[in-house]
Give the backbone structure.
Amino acid sequence: MHPIIHTEAFVLKSIESGEANKRVWLFTREHGLIVATVQGVRKSGAKLRSHIIDYTYINADLVKGRDVWRLVSAQVISNPFVGLYDKMRARSFVRALSLVERFCIEEGAEPEIFEHLLETMKTLNINSDNDKLFDAVVLWKILVMLGYLELAEEFKDLFEKDILEISPKEDTVKRLVKDVSDAINRTHL
């Protein structure tokens, strides 16, 4: 018998599979990126149907089989797109989740990135005064944590600061944007 693993997760994306199933990409603190199957979730009376929404933060119960993970139950903790939110910050959050889905390998614990995503999600209801900076820092931190970007000595303070405390100069923002673009282009992912 396989144990049920209880964990919090971000739903990165989902796609239809078969007649009534879905495959979901989840990002957890303990297990990193997990691709799980959800049986019968597309049926009209399915209990999990309203809990498996892209970009939500959920409590998930997972079972790891021989070849595949199965999501057996879920409950939404937070849907950051219900209520008031800053559209540009929300765009940055979705880009961050997409970046994690593209660049993380399956089943590798990444607690720093998980905490960074949580911190980013909690700032979505605050109006951004510098959208380009917020976007660049959110993505830049993920790429540094994954090792796709080197953490330059001049940016160590920036890396350690809370996302709401950051206010670098315009040339720093341009450099971060360039570094993020270059890192993504170099990977060909």
Observations:
- The chain is about 35% helix and 25% strand.
- Residues 170-187 form the longest helix (18 residues).
- The first strand starts at residue 4 and ends at 17.
- The two ends are 37 Å apart (CA to CA).
